[in-house]
Design goal:
By secondary structure, the protein is mainly alpha-helical. Among the domains are: 88 residues, no CATH class; 59 residues. It is 62% helix and 2% strand. Strands 1-2 form a two-stranded antiparallel sheet.
């Protein structure tokens, strides 16, 4: 007899034996997979370290910025961070600020998009690098198209953030590329949470691209929905500007047509009505007559549009 509490010896059944063999083979497979992953990680780290050493041996004067060209894509680098991709993104971002502030490296902007794309892959929600990268691109590198690419990257990773197309629109506006600015402001305007100023900037860009109908409709909407008096005044002044631009352009064309037909300038704008070129002379948004110079044929508004 065995002491109480100890099981008696019994033969191992076939089911138990098969189960033990399956567990043993499963453990072996897991062990192989784990060893393979460790081997690949160590191999990647060694390869990256070797490439870094090789690039550092090259004289900086010969290949400026050579130490950064071997940084892998953020997609692959993320697997080497062991879950600390945000930390690595911070480190690369801080390094990038110092690197791109080094005026001793003439070709430092060559890999700007690549470096900030790495940060984007490592931490897509990290907003600052997109903004700072775009600022470096436009102010330091003098490349607004590169700034657009970086901000587009931010919008792609964060489609709910209006700030990226808004900043791109602002950069385009500073470059006086109002077609591009208008498109970016439109994108920003369509994202929930965008501030009211985006619509006003879009309306301004529409005016500068000579889409006067769109500019009129947008400024009219701003005027009708504004809660503050100062916003209404801004919108009204822009409406005045749009209408006076359309009217004076049309009147100037008719004055030139009158001169071609009669060989002289009309004595006043009502002469256009008398000869059948115009049904009635329009007035500005304030209800005042446009100013006409019969000596030069110039037609202009009664006031400067931004003065009330």
């Amino acid at each position: 007899m065995l002491p109480a509490g100890l099981p008696e010896d019994r033969p191992v059944t076939m089911v138990e034996k098969e189960k033990a063999e399956k567990m043993s083979s499963g453990e072996k497979l897991l062990r192989r997979q784990r060893n393979l992953i460790i081997f690949l990680l160590i191999g990647s780290l060694l390869l990256f370290s070797w490439l870094k050493l090789q690039s550092d041996r090259v004289a900086r004067k010969k290949v400026p910025g050579s130490s950064i060209i071997y940084l892998p894509s953020g997609k692959y680098l993320k697997h080497l961070t062991f879950g600390y991709s945000s930390l690595v993104a911070d480190i690369i971002y801080l390094w990038a600020i110092q690197y791109y502030g080094n005026y001793a490296i003439p070709d430092r902007f060559k890999y700007l998009e690549h470096i900030f794309s790495i940060i984007s892959e490592l931490d897509p929600k990290y907003v600052d690098p997109y903004e700072v990268g775009a600022l470096i691109a436009v102010y330091e590198a003098g490349d607004p198209n590169l700034a657009y690419k970086i901000l587009d990257m931010g919008l792609e990773k964060n489609p709910d953030m209006w700030i990226f197309p808004f900043q791109a629109g602002h950069i385009a506006q500073m470059q006086k590329d109002f077609e591009v600015a208008r498109e970016y402001y439109r994108k920003a305007m369509e994202i929930p949470g965008a501030p009211p100023i985006v619509k006003r900037l879009y309306a301004h860009a529409a005016y500068r691209t000579m889409d006067y109908q769109e500019a009129w409709e947008m400024w009219k909407e701003v005027y009708e929905t504004a809660q503050e008096d100062w916003v209404k005044e801004i919108a009204y002044n822009h409406l005045y500007r749009v209408k006076s631009t359309v009217d004076t352009t049309a009147l100037t064309a008719l004055v030139n047509k009158f001169r071609e037909k009669y060989g002289r300038l009309p004595s006043d704008l009502k002469a256009l009505v008398r000869v059948g070129l115009l049904k009635e002379v329009p007035k500005d948004l304030d209800g005042k007559d446009y100013v006409y110079d019969p000596k030069t044929g110039e037609v202009k508004p009664a006031r400067v549009w931004w003065k009330r």
